Every structure is written in structure tokens, then in C-alpha cells.
Amino acid sequence: MPVTYPRIPLSDRVRDGVAVVLILVSLVLPWDGHSLAAERIDVVLAAILALFSPAVPYILRSGALSGRADLLRTWLLRASFALPYLAVVVTTLVVDIVVGRVPESLVSIDGLVLGSGTAGGFGAGLGVGLAGVLLAAAPRVAELSRVPRGVDEAWRIAAVAVATLIVLCLLLSTVLGLIDVSSGVPTATMTGLASLLVVMIVFTVPPFAGMVMGDLGWRRVVMWLGATVAAAMLFAPAVESIYRPLSGLVFWPAAAALAAAPGVVRTMNQTAPDALRLGVASRALELIAVTGVAGFTYGVIVFLDVESQRGAQVLSLITTMTLIVWSLTAHAVLRRDPHRGRVTALIAAVVFLMIGLVELVVWVVILDAAPVDPVSLGVSFALPAVVLAALAFPSGLQGRITLRRFDGPPGQPRGFAVPRGTEEATPTTGPIRVFDAASVGAGTAAAARSPESVRADMAGSTGSTTSVTAAEPGRAADAAGGRDAESTGVPPREVVSQHVPAEPRADAEPGATPVVQSLDSVPSRAAAAATKSESTPDTARAATAEAE
Length: 548
Known about the structure:
About 60% of the residues lie in helices and about 5% in strands. By secondary structure, it is mainly alpha-helical. This is DUF7937 domain-containing protein.
């Protein structure tokens, strides 16, 4: 049976499975402020069409269709199945902007005033489902050889655009949500709200700024944080709105899904595997420190404004300061001495996980409150897990499932990842060059040739043949030493003759045949030294006169 679609690697299978799970789980989550996703017929139909996107490669791989599939058209077909879902998402956002209104009532959470009963809105089901659809519509590893590089750049730009939407939504929702009730909110509470807003912005901006700069380490961090935010939405579904303060984190999983596309790697700076692992750990420690500083400021403001739960607040301040100091220390040691810094960073990551677990137990068991803040979960659990995953395992275990490494042509960056079982095409767009498979194969074959075959080719391409020229006294001395060794019984070193084109002398007449010295005519170093030591000015003048 003819194969109509290339082999599907394990990474694509995992990506498809995660996409299907996210789309199905989103149906039981709130879509907006009025209904679940499964209660809206437009969302259900769009989700069913989106499920065909990851199924297309497997249908083609099974041989159900005759003829070999065009990979570019296959990806366009899969992407078209995601368009209805995107249309429903955009419609929901527009309805929230037009129909939504300021919250009718206020709820105090940790001294902060948040809205409840918001009309319109967009819920966790929208964010989780959108992440699954974008993950399913991304070009697969097997399709990268035919997908233009401009598509990969567009995928990375889309991830940064969604992150920009998150920041704008956080700012606008906070301003619009409090514009009518600011007179009844204490100054300390407004300050706490502003500090919490800064925490969420700091949690979002650095990773995607690193994506703009092409840092693969920040891409790994974005993927881990997106998975953490999606898990928080699954266990604690929420409904956000442009008119509810601090709304916008619902789009974090979608931004992470765009960054997780395999083609995005081709548009970013390529680094060696070991350097990439150190970079991932360093970026995670940096984000822990920066977010910890903003969180500590928020904790101080809440401590001054709220008089209840003093013990938990003091514990939170102490643990936050510990995160800041230890993350900065581990980051500094890791940059100065990676060998020692690796141990320090691993110990810090384990301590961070233990601190997060203690805080979780205190809030859930003792205070009977569920800490569902995605930022706290990301800093306490996701980022330390990133450090452990980057530094705890040997580098040889990474990149062997679906990728192979090659050095590329001389003078080019090392460690570029190429899908196994696919042929790399010459790029038509994009700033990063993709090496042609033919040139890479030719370079590899040339490197694998033996010295004898190279010398044979040189013999065929040169007109004159010689063993060693006069400009190579060192090699001639080795040969002379080999002849002398015959009389002493010591086995001579192997002398390999080379075919070198003879070069004419500088004082030779035009058209004269260049003089070639054979191996026997070249004296050894010892003989040359002896001749030089025995020569006198008289003998030199005699030799000059004889030559004249």
C-alpha cells in the first residue's frame, strides 16, 4: 500500500493528543458569563470541525486516499478546520465589549475589590479551547519541509500579539472596572490592586520579550507557564471580562500553544544543547526573582491594609523573600561557574517546590481557601520544575525522540534541529537560513573520504607529480630518517608520497620548465646541518665561482 503521508514522529502524536484533550475538556467549562461551552451550539459545531484538524494526517497515513499528499495543501486543509472556532472566539470578545457593562456588585478578596455578576465576559472554556485549536492547527514536523518560513515567523508573531492582548486586557479591564467605583475604594486597596496588576504584567512581559529576541530558553518557559495556567483554569474555572479588573490571563494558554509550534524553533537563535539547558534554567530563575519582587510589594501592601490572617501573610512575605534571594544567588553562580551553579540551582529548585507545597497546605488545610492564582502556581511550582527539567537530566537524553543534530556547513551555527525522516527544502522566506540537504550530504561525504582517495584525485588533476617539494624539508627529513633506520634495524616511520604541483622559481625565465626535486635529492635535516657547519667562506666562494 503506498504511503501518502510521511512518518508521524512522537512529538506530533503527543501534540495532537494534548490538542484533542484541551478541545474536549473546554466543553465542560464556562464559555462566558451565561453558559457553558457545551450549551452553545455554535461552540459545539466549531469544536467538532476543529477535531478534524489533528485527524487529517492519520487519515492520510492510513492510505485511505490514493496518491501522495501535498504537505502544504494538507496543512492548509488542517488550518481551515480551525477558522470557525476562531470566528466564534472573536465574536464572543466583540459581544463582551459591546454588551458588557460594569459589575453590578463588588466582592472583596484579600482587601481587593473585584466585580461579580458581569454581563458578557469570556470564560476558561474559551481560553482552553482556543489553546487546543491553535495547537492542532500548527504545522507539523513532517510538514515543515514544504511550509514557507514566513508561516513560522507569523506563528511567532501571533504568540507575541496574543501576549500583547493579555497586557492590554489587564490594563483596560482594571481601568474600566474601577472607573465608576473608585470613589468608594480605599487608597490602600487601590494601591494593592495596582501592585497586583504589576505582578501579572511582570509575569507576562519578560517571557514574550525573550520570544521577540529569539531566545529559545524563554520559549521553554512560556510553554511551561501556559500549561500551568491551563491547569489552574481546569481546577478553578473563572469568567473574565473587559469590565472586570485583572482580566486577561485566560489567553495565556493560547499564547503558549502558538509558541509551542515546531516551526517556531526555526525562526529563533540556534544554540548548543548544553547552552540551551543552562539558558532555560537561567531564564526561569530570572523570572522567579523579578516576579518575586513585585509579589513582595503586593504582600506588604496587603499586610498593611488587611488585619486578618496575619500569620499567613507573614509566612508569604518570608517565603517570597527567600525565593528572591536564593534565585538571584543561584542565577549568579550558574552564570559564573555552570558546574557549581548546576548543583546550586537544583537545590534552589527543590527548596522552591517545598516552599510552594507548604504554602499550599497552609492555604487549603489551615485557612480553608483554595489558592487558584495562576501567577502564584507558576512561580511556586512551574518555574522550579523548569529548572529541574533543564539541569537534572543528562544532555544526551534530550533531542533523541524526534530530532537529530548536525553541524551544518563550515562557519555556520551548530546544533540546528532537522526533523528525522524529512527532506529540508530551500527557504523562500524568513531571516534564518535552512541548509540544503544536498549540500549537507555532499559536505558529509567529502569529510568521510579517506586521505588516499583525496591524493588520488589530486594526482589526476595535476600535470606534474613529485613526492616532496623542496619547500618541505621536514617531511624529507622524516624520509631520510627512514632510510637511515634500515641500517640500524629500527622500523622506519611510514612515508606517504604526495602529488604536489611544482611551482616555478621566482628568477626563472618565462616558459621554462619548473625544477622538481625528488625525495632522494632532498637532504635530511641532519645532513643539511652538518654541511652548513663544515662550510667555510672559501668553499662558498669556490662554489660561487664554479657556478659562474
